[in-house]
TrEMBL record:
Residues 1-19 form the signal peptide. InterPro entries: Peptidase_S1_PA (IPR009003), Peptidase_S1_PA_chymotrypsin (IPR043504), Peptidase_S1A (IPR001314), Ser/Thr_Proteases_Immune/Dev (IPR051487), Trypsin_dom (IPR001254), TRYPSIN_HIS (IPR018114), TRYPSIN_SER (IPR033116). Its main location: secreted. GO terms for biological process: proteolysis. Gene3D superfamilies: Trypsin-like serine proteases. Belongs to the peptidase S1 family. CLIP subfamily. CDD domains: Tryp_SPc. PANTHER family: TRYPTASE-RELATED. It comes from Drosophila rhopaloa. GO terms for cellular component: extracellular region. This is Polyserase-2-like. It is found in: Secreted.
Amino acid sequence: MTAVAVCIVLFGFLSHGSSWMLEEDCGEIRGVEERILNGVNAKFLHNPWMALIKTPTEFLCGGTLITRRFVLTAAHCECSNVECTEKHTDLTARLAEYDRSKLIDFGFTYEDFPVEKVYAHKGFVMMNHHNDVALLKLKGIVEYKRQIQPICIPLESRKKSGMAKIMKFTAIGWGKTQNGTNSDVLQTVELNKIPKEDCEDIIGEGLVDSQICGGTGTKKDTCTGDSGGPISSSVYYMGKWRETQIGITSFGPKKCGGAAVYADLMYLSDFIEQTVMESDITVILPKIQFLDAGCLATETSSGGESFPWLAHVYMDAFLITYGTLISDRFVLTTAQFLPENAPLEVRLGKFSGSYEVTHKVKTLHKHPDFVSLAQNDIALIELESAVKYNDLIRPICMPSLTDNKEQQMFQKKADQADKLRVVGWGRWASTMVYRANSSECYKEDHQEIGVKQICVDHPYDLNLGSGSPLVRPFKHGRSEGFTLVGLASFGRHGRRPQDVYTNVLSYLDWIRPLVKQ
């Protein structure tokens, strides 16, 4: 066949970026050039996520590496008979494979990983291939390298409508070619999405919402042996074009060359995410260096709207500002309403409804360059006594003040989040707010928003106070928490109200020596 240009898709809703992939650093092609029917040889090192699923005696299916412990494939690949009443055992996932006839491809040797456990979708039906998805948990941890990388797996259901607009995709596999035999060299073919009603005439049976139909009408197709392999497209995510898996090759008519059916990952992402996160959390979770490791909630801790890190700063009986507990001795807040030489106290646990503790303030550190609301509206409060943590009082998650790599990761994820949560009071205790364009923010007032400030749309049904925390929700295994992004500095009401927050992560160099004192 003649080569077809790769389909590249850019969604408007990805322009600001957001963390919605299973693996952050996924889908990157780091190589160099050196069941597919009428396809062409895939370029070497251009599909480092491809996995070959086999038993000791036979090649079964394709698959994709999606994390350091999991390969994604089709559920029917485990079946050893037509009814799927019997299953294959002693499965192996082979990574870094390209030419099956060679032990070494261009200096790279494949790596075999025995399969520890198969997680097939409970709703899989062999007769019609509904929910044809399975995860293979590998024995051992995969080391990412040039020839072994994970493909991107989209997770957020709110992206479903955008992903559904992809009308062209790439299929990869070692399946039967036009010669009627399985290919030794990895093959690739570009396919078009086919409307379900047209596909049903070709396939001979009806399809459900969780299935995609694809083909070309020119005898280019996936075929026997390509099952379990990916269909994918390039998606712009975290500043790069990344290969993102759209579906899994599932089934087609006995005579290849017309069309085939693929399991739609956007309908199966909940199963994938839950299986990966719950299967072996202690092994697959990366180590994160926090300022205070006590910020992570235990599985039994209260979470959600409890905000155990929220602080209220009082002068006598008057609340003057909000703050955020970042360690057992320090609270971050804004500088504007804090008097220099007045007795202050911090109250924690106020949102618990019944449990509240008060700590006297030892030292108030306002940023030395704070003059007005324009810049550097931040202050660090040092408490007289250490805070005792419990389910109702706990610091927010901040990066280690000595780990530059961790700080950069926190900042990158904060910058890429187009939607953040802010805490205040009113009808709701908190709400989600959308990031606004800083270059346009307060432009009509001839006020420039600096790089150490964040502009967001003002929330409705929520009142904000100085120092109201702007936070990013995140998951770490079975624990859910928040990381601190900003502190409310100033805002206004109007036709399109917007609020400006101090970008907390921009002041870590200033915070570091004060916390170490």
